[in-house]
Design goal:
Blueprint lengths: L1 H26 L15 H12 L20 H4 L12 H6 L14 H12 L12 E2 L2 E2 L8 H12 L20 H4 L12 H6 L19 H12 L19 H12 L18 H10 L1 H6 L16 H12 L4
Antiparallel strand pairs: 1-2
Helix pairs in contact: 2-5, 6-9, 10-13
Length: about 325
Amino acid sequence: MNNLRKFKLTTALLLVVLVSTFLSINSCQHDGIPAEELEQVCFNEQILPIFQNSCGTSGCHDSKSAHHGLVYTDYTSIMKSITPGNASKSKAYQAMTSTFEIMPPENPLPQDKRTLIRIWIEQGAKETNCASGEIINGGTKSGTGWACYERDIQPILMSGCAISGCHDAKTHKDGIDFSTYSKTLATISKGNPSGSKLYKAITANQSSEDFMPPKPYSPLSKAAIDSIYSWIKRGGLNDECASVCDTTGTINYSSHIKSIIDLSCVSCHGATSPSGGIKLLTAADLQAVAKSGKLIGAIKRKTGFSAMPPSYSLASCEVRQIELWMNQGYN
C-alpha cells in the first residue's frame, strides 16, 4: 500500500514537472513583431562578420578545420546549417542557443547577435548586401544602402554639420539646425534626395557658397553622401537599424576602423585645414595619433584631452574596436 502511494506521488510530481516545463517553454514563444516587418538585416555587413569572427576561425569551422564537417566562412557554406524562414530548425541557430553544448563553446554569442541572426533567418536568410544599394548617376553606391537615421545619419550630421558656429542647436546658422531628427526633417524632401536642401548642399560644387560643410571643414566622404541619399530616398524615417559591432577576432583598419573615422572624424580632420593640425585620412595618419596617446584620450573623453567627436561620444563598442586595433598592431 505504501509503495502504491509512493508511486502515485512520484507520478504526480513528474506530471507537475513536465507541465511546468511545457508551460515555461511555451511562455517564451511569443509572436512579437513579424520578422518581415523589421528592417532588412544585411548578410554581408551584419551576419557574415559574426560567423567569420566567432565560428569560422582557425581550428573550428574554417575551410581547413571544418569541425564536424561544418564551415562558416561564406554564405554557401553557412546555408548548409540554415533553414530559411525557421530559426528553430536551423542547426547553426540551435547550436548558438543550446543549453547543453552551446557554440562558440568558450565565448557564447551575446543576445543581440543571436537575435540578429534569428531575424535574418526568419526574413528568409537571403544573401543581402546593403552596401550595394542603388545606382546613382551610373555609379554604384558606396555608402549604406539601407541607411537608418540613428545608426548612420545622425553621426554624420553631428560631426559634419551640427557643430559649433554652424548648424548646432545654439547657432542654427541660416535657420538650419541638425541637432535633432525633427529639425533635420525641415531640410529634406522625403523620397526625393535631389529636391532636398541637405543633399543639394553636400553635393554642390565645392567652389559654390552653397556647398556644405564649408571650409575649413572637409567635404563629406562619398560613403556618407550615399548613405544620406539612401536615407532620404527611403523616406527619411526616424528608424533604428540593428547594428553589429563585433569585437571578436582580428580588428583591422579597412574592415572596422576606417568607417568609424570617416563618419565621425574626417569632417574636421580631413585634408583641408585639419583641426588642430591633425589629419586622419589614412591608416598611417590614425596610427601616428594613436601611438601618441591622443586618440584614446580624446575618444574616451579623458581629462586633459579635447573630447572627440566634440558633439557626441562614440559608441562604447566602437571605442573598444579602436583599442583592439591598437593592441593588435595597428593593421
